[in-house]
Amino acid sequence: MHPAPAPAEAPLLAGGRPPLHHEGVQIHPFGTLRPLPLGLAHDTRSYACRRLNQLLADTQVLYSLYKKHHWLVHGPTFHSLHLMLDKHAGEQLELVDALAERVQTLGGVAVGDPRHVAELTSVPRPPDGVESVPAMLSRLLDAHERILVDARDAAARVAAEGDEGTADLLVSGVVRTGEAQVWFVAATLADTPALRP
After folding, report:
1. What is the tens place of the pLDDT at every residue in 91-105?
2. Which residue in 33, 102, 107, 122 is deepest, having the highest Cβ count within 10 Å?
3. Cα(52)–Cα(152) distance, rounded to whole angstroms?
4. Which candidate, 69, 59, 50, 63, places its Cα nearest to that of 136?
5. In 3D, which of 103, 86, 96 has the Cα closest to residue 49?
């Protein structure tokens, strides 16, 4: 009995190694839509994907800010902040996945490469080094506000076009999560002593 050959879609080189450095043809360019029977106009889906990808890029950056501050926070409130920032990062990561999956559901292409995210985001880049704790928290609040303003506007506009699914995700997910996190960060900032960097 002969062993079964490897599947054609996964060719192996001598020694059982997969082929490396294989570049395929781009089959679904960013900014384009696959046709799907969703009952939504092409222009509605295209607009929603553009808005979702902007929020997705900003949310990925906010997630990264939370993780950076989780690692670098210091001072007398370290333990509680360390835990809170990590919890918020986890919630933002869930939103990243939900936003990306909504883009895909609408037939679009979700922004995923960090270099592409950096090109799209509206959240200002922080210094590479460590900031004071109040500066870290203030930076998080600024990023949240940018995202909340954009999410509310996008939700209203896509709902007016009949895309209630996207509007629901933006309000129930992005806005409600962001508002709750702003509450916690702002309350913490009010009680955080100004520390030297």
Report:
1. 999 999 999 999 999
2. 102
3. 12
4. 69
5. 103
At 149, list the tokens: 């303003």
Amino acid at 180: A
pTM: 0.86
Cβ partners under 8 Å of residue 132, min gap 6:
194, 195, 196, 197
Query: CB–CB of 95/169 below 8 Å?
Result: no
For 17, 22, 24, the CA distances from 11, given in Å and listed in that order, are 9, 11, 14
CB contact set of 95 (below 8 Å; sequence gap of 6+): 59, 173, 174, 177
- Assign 5 a pLDDT band (cuts: 50, 70, 90): low
CB atoms within 10 A of CB 151: 28
